[in-house]
User: Fold these one by one.
Assistant:
Number 1:
Amino acid sequence: MSTASFGAQSVVDALVESGVTTFFANPGTSEIHLVSAIDRNPNARAVLCLFEGVATGAADGYARATGRPAAVLLHLGPGLANGLANLHNARKARSPMVVVVGEHASNHLAYDTPLKSDLDALAGYAAKAVFHMQPGDDLAAISRNAAALAVTAPCGPVIIVANADVMWSLPGGKPRGLAQPAHRNVDTPDLPPQQALDFLRGERSAVLLGGDALCAEGISLADSLAQATGSALLVETFNGRHERGEGIPHVDRLPYFREAALDKLASVDRLLLVGSRAPVAFFGSVEGSSVLTRPDAQLLATAETQSPLAMLRRMVALLSKIPAPRLEERKELEAPVGPLTPKAIWAVVNRLMPEGAIVSDESGVTSVGADEAMRGARRHAWLNLTGGSIGQGLPAGSGAAVGAPDAQVLVFHGDGGAMYTVQALWTQARERSKVVNVIFRNDRYAILDYEVKRHGLGVLGEKGASMFSLADPSLDWVSMAQAMGVKASSVATAEEFAAAFEEALATEGPVLIEARVGSGKRSR
Amino acid sequence: MSTASFGAQSVVDALVESGVTTFFANPGTSEIHLVSAIDRNPNARAVLCLFEGVATGAADGYARATGRPAAVLLHLGPGLANGLANLHNARKARSPMVVVVGEHASNHLAYDTPLKSDLDALAGYAAKAVFHMQPGDDLAAISRNAAALAVTAPCGPVIIVANADVMWSLPGGKPRGLAQPAHRNVDTPDLPPQQALDFLRGERSAVLLGGDALCAEGISLADSLAQATGSALLVETFNGRHERGEGIPHVDRLPYFREAALDKLASVDRLLLVGSRAPVAFFGSVEGSSVLTRPDAQLLATAETQSPLAMLRRMVALLSKIPAPRLEERKELEAPVGPLTPKAIWAVVNRLMPEGAIVSDESGVTSVGADEAMRGARRHAWLNLTGGSIGQGLPAGSGAAVGAPDAQVLVFHGDGGAMYTVQALWTQARERSKVVNVIFRNDRYAILDYEVKRHGLGVLGEKGASMFSLADPSLDWVSMAQAMGVKASSVATAEEFAAAFEEALATEGPVLIEARVGSGKRSR
Ligand SMILES: Cc1ncc(C[n+]2csc(CCOP(=O)(O)OP(=O)(O)O)c2C)c(N)n1
Ligand SMILES: Cc1ncc(C[n+]2csc(CCOP(=O)(O)OP(=O)(O)O)c2C)c(N)n1
């Protein structure tokens, strides 16, 4: 077979030409032609991931770090299944990516073979759109279309189902793929800026920001607007990317716990949603409604297809006088001493985190106090767990480092969540990524202890409590990191953490710090 | 809340009463009442798994080791997503299990929350049936029904979707759940034994065995039948459980590679499928048809709802004279010396594997020669990767050890596949399981090198080859095991392997042996 003579090459070449050049890959036999095509395209980059959830999470992190989509290469239904949880998180973050999933040759699908599965049932689960390819189709056009759709607001993952026979055959010229993808969003009209501004000028108004409004420019614009209209300003609880720190106005996040969020929104009569979703509790509750705004509050929202940042620009342009945004100043916290509390941890990060850092955060209960400490830190971008499916933090950090090799990437992670996609450490080592991973070892799914209390279930017995316990045996994160080629150390005091963090920032390649924040004892 | 006063307790108690007593669990907030219910039921056992694919794979291994279903507890759509790949393998193995998946409270599902997802799209992917529960339903009856359906031929995983509000409310008495589950198999009539026997008496006939026919009794019966009718005997390539060794007739497996399988079936005119599927290639191929039997061959199959073992008993009962089955004798191979080749590895296993061992096999290219060496080994049960989704071996071995604590469990695993669900090692340590894990470290997805050749794609360049390479950095399996509390050693010669294997068998609790079978160099 000569170069470019088979379908897979058309797909890969078209994606690369569309600017989708990095492939986070975990391939198998059915993707062998796609592997060969990536091999033959000098501008395609291949990043091997040892589990599919790492590949999808890394593409999400890449998108959040760069604003551009990466590609993901997966093996049939089961490979897609393994990648779904982080695709779910990516969809909620509105991260663009192009997921190419191999599928059996069309005539092989009639048979009950081991790897035969209902791939289509999965594809719709977390993708914005699903593209199928038939023999004779214009595969390059379909691929370009997929890449374009991924970055059309609302951005998100799109899936290309690549049957093996289509990949190994010559592509044709049928433009069928340019037509409707399987899932297409309905067009909605833009919210007019003047209407939004008038709305805000009413009493007791507030703006809830989300999406690309959370860049330095967007937050500054929003702060000017808030001052001009006398509105409060909030950001969503879990954001794909939130720029913060020195030189950017501080905005509170909507609290996670229902009780606190209700409190925060109690005084809001008019809420403008700019790229954000209507505030709803994370989980339903015995106590009642999931809605966090008052029943009589008015909500007004931008369209899903509208850029929140562009909306803010247009609204500010309507102001006769633009108040200067209240930019945060660098406020260095004092060096902490003694026990390794959350407060001590975030103080160290406040002191040492370099300008332009990208933070992939899944720090669980240890996150208490982080927002306040980061307020006066050097300017950084903070990536949250967006879909509640734990195991996003390490992959997203890994992908961010591939996309933004000059930035310092920091991963803050609960030990429980870190285990789901721990294979990401290997990809960091393979790519010599500039990542410092801090694992908060409390030997527990600590958040779930709170949930037992909040649900009035009393104190769990030994057996119930063991279902949240990582203490028997304790995980040894230093060995874990070293097993995958990542340098590591373990710390138990504030001073040790500060020293290890400083050294890690000065080290080439990825580093892991095991931060022993808990005794492993059950918290009551 | 008092004991048994909420829905979750009805579900857990009914499952336990139905004999489903072990819960492989990875819970979250939406399953907090189920956790409490397991805690309160003294006969329920909780086995924490640090990733959902470990939980589903372990329940599969438990079923294969015991013939009985375990339960799995998962968190919402994303938890189910993470468990799907090994559910796929379990479905193909026809392993019974009851998967309880939490879902948001019914009235919370209306909102676009982080963890909102289309759980139902996933549930049908790999489950035999999906049960939903409404407030007021007789939850105990639904749960009993689910447990019963899991063990009704064809066995398989069933899913119970447990909305949080149904779990925290009082159960009612509505018997709705006893009606049709979402997916139900059509009833098919049994194949009459006399018809099957007459079919086999024709020229050039063969029997292909699968399912529960592959126990010692079933294989002996099949061997008598084969002798009486002059038929050849084969077993499927990838079996859920295959009993072999001393005291059991040897039966060849249908080869994995298309070319070899076609060869094997070339002389078969009449093929009787007893609990097996029609022979089809694993992957489709450029060369042509997926079907492995000759186009003019006749196939006759038992019904899916028919027990293969019972069928064999009934067929043998029709014979006027029953030939004695040709039982294998113990044939101890010579102690190997020198390089750690597959041949050397299987010779060591032949010599040392204790009677009654359960083997969870995902050994990849290292499997060459295993079947021949196991022929004269002590009696054992061999569990294959059934659905082609790698990452089954460690979890299945872990679950088998929970289900059959007196048996020695052996896991043989490629290093690539072992990474997908490596968290299983921790569960082995937690349960002090009697498992010896042998990881074949060749620092490569070696099978995929063959596939490149078989597809005529020439030699991959550096980049393409790097997509199959685990060599940069190499994984250190000794550190990996120790990180999760499992004792480990590394070996590079036949003698070292024999010594380590012998020592591992004498050790309490789980052990891992890193067998350095390859140089990490690319095989050409
Ligand atoms: C894929 C997935 N599985 C399970 C859960 C349920 N869950 C939510 S938080 C949590 C424990 C997190 O533990 P850790 O990361 O150590 O943080 P900690 O609570 O100790 O701060 C679990 C299991 C989930 N959210 N997503
Ligand atoms: C879930 C899933 N992802 C990817 C694949 C594709 N695949 C098949 S075999 C293989 C490599 C297996 O490597 P290893 O376990 O080391 O065995 P070896 O080939 O080296 O013997 C891969 C990635 C698969 N079958 N299932």
Number 2:
Amino acid sequence: MIKSYIRDNEPRLLENLFSLIRIPSISALPEHHDDMLKCADRWKELLLAAGADRAEVMPSDGNPLVYAEKLIPGADKTILIYGHYDVMPVEPLELWKSDPFKPEVRDEHIWARGADDDKGQSFIQYAAFEFLVKHNLLRHNVKFILEGEEEIGSPSLETFLAQHRELLKSDIILVSDTSMLAADLPSLTTGLRGIAYWDVEVTGPNHDLHSGHFGGAVANPINVLCEMIAKMTDADGRITIPHFYDDVEELPDAERKMIASIPFDEEKYKRALDVEELRGEKGYSTIERNSCRPSFDVCGIWGGHIGEGSKTVLPSKAYAKLSCRLVPHQDYNKINELFAQYFQSLAPKSVKVKITFSHGGHGYVCPISLPAYKAAEQGFEQAFGKRPLAARRGGSIPIISVFEKVLGVKTILMGFGLESNAIHSPNENFSLDIFRKGIEAVVGFHEAYDQL
Amino acid sequence: MIKSYIRDNEPRLLENLFSLIRIPSISALPEHHDDMLKCADRWKELLLAAGADRAEVMPSDGNPLVYAEKLIPGADKTILIYGHYDVMPVEPLELWKSDPFKPEVRDEHIWARGADDDKGQSFIQYAAFEFLVKHNLLRHNVKFILEGEEEIGSPSLETFLAQHRELLKSDIILVSDTSMLAADLPSLTTGLRGIAYWDVEVTGPNHDLHSGHFGGAVANPINVLCEMIAKMTDADGRITIPHFYDDVEELPDAERKMIASIPFDEEKYKRALDVEELRGEKGYSTIERNSCRPSFDVCGIWGGHIGEGSKTVLPSKAYAKLSCRLVPHQDYNKINELFAQYFQSLAPKSVKVKITFSHGGHGYVCPISLPAYKAAEQGFEQAFGKRPLAARRGGSIPIISVFEKVLGVKTILMGFGLESNAIHSPNENFSLDIFRKGIEAVVGFHEAYDQL
């Protein structure tokens, strides 16, 4: 029944999704403030149209959240569905094959910023909800909460959750914002990495200098910043911050075996990225490195003369955005303190270093013994024709651990993305086939959940 | 006589200088192409007005050059005056206290891009020439050549010189484009450093990746670029390129003693730059390091997410502008080969590195036994009341060695800048007092030159 519903309603469903995508709700850029409000309003309209009893845009300390609910008389269980309506910046724009905010269907894929992360995925939850309401199939309460600051680290969410504990009361949280191992390897995410993110500024001389008159005599803050960054990892690819690994648990052999059994074609992976070699911590496989081990990445760097031409300058300042992916049990607050102390200690006296903690999030582990996890397995099996693998993933959704801390509720990560979807990158896309299967899987989840 | 001439004519002289400064002739930025032509035309007008017999804007492979001459019947000597009418970019614009292209006089200084480098300094030569012509005091021929590509490495000058050897025939070349040790320490520049400048591009994966999904598994080109840059110098501040120092001559003890005798207040120098410590090659004094020893500076770096916000990206590319200051006898072509081979060798297989040689220039040494050098000493002594010191400087004017190579003529570096003039930086400025003394010193030079 759900298959024919999707077929019959697809043009309308896509048009509704596109109406969300067309709003450039980039939370990182202050000039898009009005778009955040527009996007929240559009979600409210859609949720009411789908059959929510109530939907409203609720203020927070930052961008507002959208709350909606459908309460079923006599129901004793409540599912809280979380998604986010904000998206990442789109630069470099010249690499996009079509306008990131004019969604297009080409080659059976949707192409746009947010096609996957997280408008497309949230919309899968939405479409399944619409189907269940219209056909009177819901046997439990459903609540939606959509936030507008996920891509900037959800600075206002924790306070919001604490203020609305009663409203958000639920038995399980359902989130579609992760990806599967591959289109033919459906999987549920059972672990996420945490994150800590910093802005650093290195100041040498108090103004830009002529590199001829001063070069060799005065510390160049770019040279120094590069040296400091280089010292952050050792020859084995391990992070050198003292005590960084104190709370990192070694992977149990059983889990390493499970990971090793995941079909993974390293040559294909390298070809897709066009790299001759991969790189990371010694002693761990590629999948272990990008999902179960911490990492250190420079997400941005700038200083001196940028772009065309050849200015001979010894600049006053150099900047970088640094981040560590963390694993469960690593506390980002503790890591922040360790990092700040260590990074500062790497600086010679010839420069001044300013470190600003931007945001952090804890990792997460979902026990596969939860009834809701089993319901998700059944939903996936129904839609994809095979039992999903349980996989830890490398991304961070800091709010998942916040849900657990503030609301005391576990989350099922029922994500339908693929690595090829290019989220956070130019030409983000989403497969229509998986979009359809996703809706089917979520409907299957709701049905199975009632029977457990 | 020259003192009263300057006093009486200063408003007109400054207005003429300002008419040059107001044209934003930034050679590094293609959008200023028309300004280059405007600035060349303005120089031509001014030179004719000052009494040149002939002045014209002459084409080259790049921006045109301005040529002018005043031939004195019966004269057997010719002085060729070189200057440049192009200026450096002005970013970061927000640090300027007044518009870089709206020259202002405040606190007895001219404030503007080009106030010193090199519109202000070239204009000193111009004003002295005007005075000598008007008062019929010239006893030798004077030729002017003003180029529009000095700040981008003079790519067209060598060909131009080779094509116009006869026109540019001269006995000595006079250049005001260097600086003095201090306002109360007049000096003539007897040595310059060479330069080699590169653009490098490091490519990791073929598109920007999500740092959560790939961080730890795939080489981040920014991390790698930082590591490569860090390896370019060792713990003693020496450049690690193999054979880099092969042609670097150790400073003779006599010269080190002379340098050590230059009054230099290191505490004041650090205070002016607001740095707690200086930094550079071990075993050499600050003045030695910034004038007689090679250096390695990153002049620009960029990659990933720049500016506001906190994008969690593992970028595809990272870029840097790298430069080495060289000393006399180091051949920038040889250094370029050594650098390219070494830098490439620093790259792990997980990235691709593209190195583009941007430009280079040889160092220069001026013998203090030249008659023209002695004439310059006399001019300085007349204007500043003390004999100028002979000092090697850290900047590069690659064309000085090109003059010697192509025209076979030595250059006297009669520069009037000060480090506090902030050339290539925001708030470039030039002292009116030194501007006046400079004109007087150049008039003194011309007069002394005829008597030698």
